Amino acid sequence: MQTVLDFLAELKENNNKEWFDKNRDRYQASRDKMLFMTELFNTEIRKFDPDIPLSDPKECLFRIFRDVRFSNDKTPYKINMGSFIARGGRKSIWPGYYFHIQPGESFIGGGVYMPDTDVLKAIRIEISDTGDQLKKILNRKNFKKFFPEMYDDKLKSAPKGYPADHKYIDLLKYKSYSFGSAIGDKLVSGPDFIPYTLNAFRELHLFNSYLSDAIHKWM
């Protein structure tokens, strides 16, 4: 993955169309590497998570081109590359597995990030009924080794329909049910990147299954 890191590092310093066009072959090589890695992870994840279908890696990889129409930042390209492996690809409502490559800021994770209203409602209903089960998943020693804390994106008060003293109010306040774990450039570019990431994804499996069950049950 060193070629991807190198390309993105230089893109950050030369975020313009002229440079990008001159280095399009390097972009293509980096994209091909990401597609290869996405396909590899997809294949391996299916060995422990049968909910994940064999997907076209192009449907999982996010585009590098930024939508600048409503942004003050007019730089045309993202300075990262990432893939979300889930039922339905990168636009899916279903929980999945994500890896994000960016020099100095790479991370791995998954779950459901900023779900729409219906998905969020389904997850909260399930937590309201079976929060102890989710807590057991999140408190497993090996899980916490990779993912000590959920993304801290929470409501300040109880969500509509739930009392402030609900038994699982801390879990119900989340607006995203997802985790991320930072990984250094040395790991990304080294021989342990694939096994380390798969071990993390394997720990994430029970969490994703819990979310999938909630969506199945309540939507």
How many H/I helices?
8
Biggest β-sheet strands, sense, barrel: 4 strands, antiparallel
**Numbering strands along the chain, what is their spatial order in the largest sheet?**
1-2-3-4
Outline, from the CA principal axes? globular
Got a strand count?
A: 4
CATH class: Alpha Beta
Structural class comes to: alpha+beta
**Proportion of residues in extended strands:** 5-15%
Order of helices and strands: HHHEEEHHHEHH
- Unreliable segments (pLDDT under 50, ≥5 consecutive)? none
CATH topology: BirA Bifunctional Protein, domain 2
Q: Into how many domains do the coordinates divide?
A: 1
Question: How would you characterize the overall build of this protein?
Answer:
This protein has a single domain (2-218), classed as 2-Layer Sandwich (BirA Bifunctional Protein, domain 2). Helices cover 47% and strands 11% of the residues. It is built from eight helices and four strands. It has helices at residues 2-13, 17-22, 24-45, 117-138, 141-146, 169-172, 185-189, 193-218, and strands at residues 81-86, 96-101, 107-112, 177-182. Helix 4 (117-138) packs across helix 8 (193-218).
